[in-house]
Amino acid sequence: MLSVEAISKRFGGVQALKDVSFAIGRNEIVGLIGPNGSGKSTCVNLLSGLLPVSGGQVRFKGEVITGRPIYDVVARGLARTFQATQVFPEYTARQNVLVGCHSMFKAGAIGSISRASHAVSEHRQISKQADEVLDFVGLGPRKDQIAATLSAAEQRLLMIAVALAASPDLVLLDEPAAGMVAGERRALARIIRDLPQRGISALVIEHHMGLIMEVCDRIVVLNFGQKIAEGTPAEIRANQTVIDAYLGHRDHA
To answer: Bridge partners of 33?
Structure first.
């Protein structure tokens, strides 16, 4: 599904990411973890096209997407969320999700304005999909509520719903559990685990180790901009290099 091939990123004289490679298979959930400043956010920004790479390339479904504009990457089936909650606060939850469906519109402005039969049918189908996505993330009962009045956790779920509204094959979830309490994280974990059943792969960038260990098939670990480990949750949990990166070398513990 996604192949990351020795990507690097420099900001002036600072090497933020160096020769990082990994892959995500179809219907697979992969975690991306690392201490603060390890390069996680830079990595996801490169994958989504928000930042240009300094070296290497990214392939999505067999095609190189390095250097392509974000709208083209989304249209190809790769969506993302952000660390900071980003929704339209004055819109309802449903209206936010409908905005996320924009890449699916085929009728065009003229067809929509003239209410051509194919445009009406398309709008009806997209509205149905928006409601289904809201139900999937647990916001169905809140679909007509103004986004600004939703709780912080509900707004993060809404951001996920907006990303899913584009019918992606792969979604990048950047710290989806930020600010959530235990019960909210459990609900989020169920949503992430159910993504492969919808034909969606996921890359989860997260600090909460409990969530990562619970939902991921494999985990990639970064430190100082380089990949230091990759494996199953059990393998990563027992990896001394990873333990040292997070807690300091055992000789100095």
So the answer is: 221
The C-alpha atoms of residue 253 and residue 251 are separated, in whole angstroms, by 6
Q: Measured over all CA atoms, what is the biggest interatomic distance in the chain, rounded to whole angstroms? A: 72
Radius of gyration of the chain (CA): 19
Q: Per residue in 45-74, pLDDT tens?
A: 999 999 999 999 999 999 999 989 888 998
Contact yes or no for 200/77 (Cβ under 8 A): no
Question: Both tokens of residue 95?
Answer: 């209206």
DSSP annotation string for 175-241 = STTTT--HHHHHHHHHHHHHGGGGT-EEEEE-S-HHHHHHH-SEEEEEETTEEEEEE-HHHHHT-HH
Helix 182-194 and helix 152-164, axial crossing angle in degrees, nearest 10: 10
Q: How far apart are CA 182 and CA 37, in angstroms?
A: 25
Which distant-in-sequence residues (6+ apart) come within 8 Å of 216 by Cβ?
Answer: 29, 30, 31, 204, 233
* Rounded Cα distance, 92 and 143, in Å: 7
pTM for the model = 0.88
76 three-state secondary structure: coil
